[in-house]
Amino acid sequence: MPSGNLLSRRKRSWRANELVSRSTLQLLDFDDGSPPEHAWRRKLSSHANRLKEFNVTFREAIRMMKLGLRLWSYIREEASHGRKAPIDPFTRESNRPSASQGVPLGGMGSGSISRGFRGEFKHWQITPGYCEMSPVMANQFSIFVSRGGNKKYASVLAPGQLDGLKKSRDDGISSWDWKLKGDRSTYHALFPRAWTVYDGEPDPELKVSCRQISPFIPHNYQESSLPVSVFVYTLVNTGKEKAKVSLLMTWANSIGGLSHHTGGHVNEPFIGENGVSGVLLHHKTANNNPPVTFAIAACENQNVNVTVLPVFGLSGESSITARGMWGTMVQDGSFDQDNFNAGASMPSSLGDTVCAAVSASTWVEPHGRCTVVFALAWSSPKVKFKKGSEYCRRYTKFYGTSPRSAVNLVQDALMKYKHWEEAIDKWQTPILSDERLPEWYKITLFNELYFLVAGGTVWIDSESLVVDADNKLNSSLLEDSDSPLRDSTFNSTAPLIGFDPHEIDDKENVGKFLYMEGIEYFMWCTYDVHFYASFALLELFPKIELSIQRDFARAVLREDNTRVRFLADGTWGIRKVIGAVAHDLGAHDPWHELNAYNIHDTSRWKDLNPKFVLQIYRDFSATGDMSFGKDVWPAVCTAMEYMEQFDHDGDGMVENDGFPDQTYDAWTVQGVSAYCGCLWLAALQAAAALARSLGHDDYAERCMLRFAKAKSVFEARLWNGSYFNYDNGTSYSSRSIQADQLAGQWYTASSGLPPLFDEDRIKCTLQKIFDYNVMRVKGGRMGAVNGMHPNGKVDETCMQSREIWTGVTYSLAATMLLHGMEHQAFTTAEGIYITGWSEEGYGYWFQTPEAWTVDGHYRSLIYMRPLAIWAMQCALSPPKSILEAPRVNTMDRAHISPGTLQFLQDSVRKITPKNGCFGNNVFNWDC
After folding, report:
1. Are 456 and 124 in contact (CB under 8 A)?
2. pTM for this entry
3. More confident: 159 or 47
4. How many Å is the maximal CA-CA distance in the chain?
5. What is the per-residue pLDDT across 405-446, written as a single tens digit (0 to 9) for each?
6. How far apart are CA 459 and CA 347, in angstroms?
């Protein structure tokens, strides 16, 4: 683990020719075998250090003791019903996470498998909400080379020091040749592709590149849903003898963990079309989860011969063992051709692990080149949630629900992957070739998108909603009938006011999409976090973004009277209130049972409703979709009206209620606050702009009248001459410099609306944050700390005030870009790259956490909010519709009568102290 002082050295990403010889890159430079100039890189011999999780201070532990006891009780109650609690800080994986991640496999929403940079397949998320982190060590690529007489090489294409290998020493895998040291092999990642270059390992005269390709293609709503990946091997023989090269793909009939021991698994060989052949592995999942079928395959042509071994075992009791399989490959480099006629195997016995292998063999002439292509698909057509709802995944709309659709998936992948790459290149090249952008930014921008695959995403076909709706009420009546808490916490059968279970809303015609807040925070589409992450979806898959917004718009008009207990204070309330924006779309019954989060009563939060209005207007202005604006308008009006109850003194500005009633759910806020107040001002302006666009001029005028009044209150109560105070309370945090205080202005500028404040005040605030929250933490090499006291010390009020939030840092950088502060913006965001992605940092690549502390302890790996880096790209290249929108101040378009104007002026005088809020320094900004 690097110490903090190592972060004082700034290093750019490794160039390809710094890790791989230039001659090797030139030799591989055909058929896209050579890695790109811009990529995230590691040697396979790099040490995968263990990551350090955060811990609370003694004071924090005492303060949260009652919450902890209530949470522990709730987790146990959920477990008794076979369910996972949305937040469980008490259960930890047996294997501590390490800095070993790489680009995940497949498209979005069909289950995901990650692949470490050293080659291990891990982080299995086939079942919604569950992530098995451990690698399945039998899943490997291996190579066998023979030249002339006795010159032979054989090795698994992964370094022998893999941690998981130690646990496999008794199952036959250790008998394989793990000869790769990895010091001459390198990994290059640019999501959704990755290149592994073996520069003379294990054969000194053979150069090998493995290119991993997944169909993540912006604006392509069909192929981006496919559960498939392709592995293209480029071979270059630099020797004087021709070489027989056999590549081997082995795969266990497993979805991670101990699922391969549950029995009933069946393997069968297949011969498809266009030379594609391989093995199907039918996996019978545990706990009544839907089955999964894997397909491993290779493409045969005049130069490549494909053979298979449908079944081998990992124990000595198997008819063909892992040791025997390996011996056959060393001896022959292929399997018996008759294996294709073997048919389906007998179901595996309880406790046995069955695997399959596909071999692709070719001859490579001296100084010759060759390409060998494999594919992996996993067909899990059904998604079943714990409270009974079952849907078909999005890809089944194009491939059907048969387990054998895995054959069609691998066939199409092997035929179409070049077209996928053309589309990926067309998308990425303009950004990669922009010389104005720092190299680290280009790399991180694309690689942070890993979350849309590995973030537990679920993408369903909307037609399956009809089936679920017909059965929903009947199935829910049968659930948990004997639970003593059925009429309170666990009752999911309460009527949903304003909700018709037969109503299907898929106007975007892209199905329904869910992504988790994080693998440790099991809630779908958590809205206060989606506020930051949604820029990625808006830029790349705007129809999905509009679909999610429609889901939340419908939820605004719904009520769920189910009583739940809020764990922070032990009080009881109802699950969902009409007018309140949902915190999330649920956990175990998404779209039907909202608000899985139950720490606080989120109907009292002050940021969710403004964030809803801001996202609606941003998406409306970016897409120009008038029908979308009209459809969500009633929800916007309802959400704005709901907020009026939080204006306790009638001055137009909402107040916080003295508890953590916003996304910083451990950081107490009192009275007028910079974060929520700024969001409210921005929401008033956005609501007015949307109303004006839809022809509701009277509503727009009312919003702008309130905006003018609330703005005066906000500035008078919080502006201190150089930034806005955290809140206007009397706590030690009240004068803290909050990194996220201009979140409302960020959205205002992103949507093409006029600024909320004078430009000088905005820039002064941003400079203050940069000077304190960014540069006074490890010299700006870690991102922006959430809270900083004016004396330059980190705000230690609570866990969250002292944390650096990765997504907030990216959004802060985006705000700086929107106001012409490019140097500050890229310096701020580079801190996330240095700490999270560089070799000098802590190893958070492809698992960017929600937060870390100044000493490098993380909280919540694989988190949604870091997708906010795409807000920076939206700031650099705004949507065309926003660029071309008329620059008219919304206030100028509100017809304010002289009497109303006098009323506003009188109101301002009443709230402003006679001697000036801050003495003589109100306009002498200390920047």
Report:
1. no
2. 0.91
3. 159
4. 100
5. 999 999 999 999 999 999 999 999 999 999 999 999 999 999
6. 31
Say yes or no to pLDDT of 698 above 60: yes
Q: Are 578 and 594 in contact (CB under 8 A)?
A: no
Q: How far apart are CA 68 and CA 61, in angstroms?
A: 9
Average pLDDT over residues 270-292: 92
pLDDT at residue number 165: 65
Which regions of 354-481 does DSSP assign to beta strands (E)? 354-364, 369-379, 382-384, 390-392, 458-460
Residue 906 belongs to what H/E stretch?
helix 898-911
Chain segment 610-640, per-residue pLDDT in tens: 999 999 999 999 999 999 999 999 999 999 9
For residue 483, pLDDT over 80 is answered with no
Cis peptide before 438 (omega within 30 of 0): no
| Averaged pLDDT, 393-398 | 96
DSSP designation for 473: H
Report which secondary-structure segment, H or E, holds 427.
Answer: helix 405-432
Backbone angles phi, psi at 813, to 5 degrees: -60, -40
> 226-246 burial, b if ≥16 CB within 10 A, otherwise e?
bbbbbbbbbbbbbbeeebbbb
Q: Are 522 and 515 within 8 A, CB to CB?
A: no
Residue 673 has what DSSP assignment? B
Alpha helices, H only, 455-503: 463-477
Helix (H) or strand (E) holding 446: helix 439-447
pLDDT at 94: 63
Cross-strand pairs, 188: 41, 195
The amino acid present at 690, given as its one-letter code, is L
Distance CA 679, CA 639 (A): 13
Q: Judging by beta carbons within 10 Å of its beta carbon (0-12, 13-18, 19+), is residue 424 exposed, middle or buried? A: buried
Q: What are phi and psi of 9, to 5 degrees?
A: -95, 125
Give the residue ranges of DSSP H helices in 514-581. 527-540, 542-556
Orientation angle between helical segments 697-718 and 674-693, nearest 10 degrees = 160
For range 899-923, the mean pLDDT: 37
- Judge whether 628 and 694 are in contact, CB under 8 Å: no
Rounded Cα–Cα distance for residues 663 and 739 (Å) = 14
Locate all alpha helices (DSSP H) within 455-526, ordered by sequence: 463-477
Residue type, 454: A
The residues, any chain, with a CB within 8 Å of residue 205's CB and separated by 6 or more, are 147, 237, 238, 239, 243
Structure confidence at residue 693 (pLDDT): 96
List, edge to edge, every strand of the sheet that includes 851-852: 804-805, 851-852, 858-859
Q: What is the mean pLDDT of residues 888-901?
A: 46
CA nearest 413: which of 235, 304, 293, 276?
Answer: 276
304-318, 380-394, 462-476, 559-573: the lowest-pLDDT one: 462-476
Are the CB atoms for 850 and 807 separated by under 8 Å? yes
Query: Which alpha helices (H) appear in 694-820, and where do they start and end?
Result: 697-718, 743-750, 759-769, 806-818
- pLDDT above 80 (res 911): no
Instruction: Identify the bridge partners of residue 393 per DSSP, sorted by sequence position.
Output: 460
Alpha-carbon distance of 44 to 809, in angstroms, equals 30
Residue partners of 169: CB distance under 8 A and separation at least 6? none
Q: What is the pLDDT of residue 745?
A: 98
CB neighbour list of residue 913: distance below 8 Å, 6 or more residues apart: none
- How far is it, in rounded angstroms, from Cα 745 to Cα 759? 11
Angle between helices 439-447 and 405-432 (to 10 degrees): 160
Give the separation between CA 38 and CA 441, rounded to whole angstroms: 10
Q: Which residues pair with 270 in a beta bridge?
A: 278
Give the integer Cα–Cα distance in Å for 364 and 146: 11
Q: What percent of the chain has pLDDT above 70?
A: 87
Which H, E and C letters describe 25-87, residue by residue? HHHCCCCCCCCCCCCEEEECCCCCCECCECCCCHHHHHHCHHHHHHHHHHHHHHHHCCCCCCE
